Give the backbone structure.
Amino acid sequence: MASNKRPKTILKFKKASEWWGALWRGGLPVGNGKIGASVFGGAGKETILINHGDLWWQGYTGVLQDVADKLKDLRRATDEGDYTRAAEILPNALINKGYRPIPAVPLPLCDLKVSMPLEKPVKEYSRILNLETGEAIVSFRDGSTKYDRSLFVSMTSNIIAYEFTKTGPKGIEAVFSFDIHDRSNIRTPQAISKLPEGLMTKYENFFMYISARSDNGTEFGAVARITHYGGSMEVKNNSIRIKGAERIFVLVKPFIESQREKEWKALKAELSAIKLTYERMFKDHCSAFSKLFSSAEFDLEAEDRDEYIEDLIEAAQAGEIKEALIEKLWAFGRYLFISSTSPDSRIMAPYGLWCGDYKAVNSYINAYRLPFVYYQAFTGGLSSYLMPIFDYYEQMIDDLKKNASRLYGCRGIFIPEVVAPQSGLLGIIDPKIIHNVSIGGMIANLYYEYYLYTGDIKFLKDRALPFMKEVTLFYEEFLKIKADGKYDCNPSYAPDGLPGNISSENDIGIARNSTMDFAVLKGLLINIIEGSQKANTNKDEIPKWEDMLTRIPAYVINNEGLVKEYIETRILDNHDSRSFGLFYPIFPGNEKLDSERFNAFYNTAQKRLHSGINKHNSISYSVLANVFAKMGNASDVMECLELILRTSMMSNFICASNDWRGMGIGDDDFWATYCPESNILLTSAISECMVTSTEDSIVLLPALSENFKKGSIEGFQTRCGAEVGIEWDRKKGIINAKIKSRRAITFDLILPKETKRLKGLDSQNYDPETHIVKDITLPANKMLNIEIRI
């Protein structure tokens, strides 16, 4: 068990999972990017849910049919204002031709069951999750004996290590078994899910085995080796019992898409060969995990770090958001991201590695949300974690081209929000999916963000620009030019953006000329032009892209000073909505706005936050927190955090999608899906309060809350190629900033508005009115130290 050296990265809980009927939702999440485990925490009856990131099922693809000839009918319907009819033209054409794909969903691998007979009601119970090391610990006292059960998923071997220790006179007695995951988790909003077939278990001295069969005919399962020190072992047909032990050490290795007998034999041999102790395996694991997690840090020097998470949440719900809670929120989102994906694994799934439903709602990869969720990876020094996204879409280029040609009759690539299994083809026959044409541009802009943060010119030339060209080609052929010379984007759709005059209780999933679509396209064109100039390529095509830029219509501001969600004049606004695509120019985009448009976007965000109070969920609140952070409004960020804590935070510190209790704020969907993506977005929002950047500027502490009197950050990365560290102390009136260049750079430095004077910079470049230091030039690997008086 790791020592508690850094309590800001320790989450302490005073209860086991309490989510009745679905205990997995309250488990403590542990993972190494590929293998996940969730610790429910029962003292007498424990369950560890084990998952594998590549184990998916219940999906179907088929052959995408060509329905591009129907586009003219769709556009005619929208010209006539009949959006209801227009919405169904492409879906019905696909269905009539037999194309009915089903997206795959995560398949829970198995449960490791542990039963420990107790003599008395437990005392001194706690669950602890160490975010710096990735270790979960359940501790409790039974009479005069204290027990600790510690678990981590190794970053170096894909093995789950689980150790039982005790302090006191009584030996450890525990019964171990395997089973498929909880059979009661087959409920879905639509129907009852099927269960895996062919369950097989086997128990023998020191080993137990499980396997089942997925719907593709392959088998999956796990092998466990159980070693005890002192005491005895008894093997039964359905369990292994240890009595009187001083310590128990369990190793578990899962497998997928293979054959039971082959894997059981191979994994038994692999686990038998391991001679390392828990402590030694943990040390090797920590060396890798902690290096990643600690590469960026956020510290408020908070008191109350040792409080239970449940108490911190309750205090926040009562109106007191403690600094310790903010520290832990930032660290937890970072932890969840690092634990649920990696540079060489699959893209992070919406439920991370901890899905416990057999057909979980909205658990498939949603490409629309990827740029929002992955945004924090750049600032947090985890740019390499974007590689699974790039690899994923590049390997399916041919299918993405089929989407473009067979749906819309265009060259280039079209990326749907959801793709069908083992393909890049359209994954759901739904108007909201088919008519969202912005995903390709959003993913392409991630490529350019990666280049900005890393400075990898080879990546820009060989991967980013070719992909961006294919996306741009689709827009070039899809968009039509109106009489005024501006583009007409038809069809168009902003997710959850319900037009005021054409929506009904059921979102029809189609509109025209969404602000989001044009914002994405503008970012793409600016990026591909700048990228091509830096790479000294595409010279003949740059004039064409520059002309395309001139054809993007301006954002429309209505007479209330709000940005319209749809530029189309015939579509009215509806701010009773949780739609956040409208704010793409702010987040995750990075568009330079004049003061009029900046104020209009801010007013619109304020309007959405309050007018849409019955529609929001934890994702939309957390996106708005990022929007306000990038716009420099700390109080609005804190309001979003408070709303999430009041409505969507489960007792294990993981967000649900919405308020399942019906308290009147936000969407009250009964299912309230498991949503670690919201936690990760909160990490992003807190980071953006500390540092934000463009390709040629760095903003220090743009949205620092007045409540944060003292603190520091380390290892925050910027678009212009610098790493930033800051220490501040408001009582002393001082801010110390360290800026280290990773390559030769020139940038403007924007100081906090409270700045009175500064040291460490040439004052002739400093404008005290704007608090901007212009044209700072640093050679590669140069450190700049600045003292700011406030």
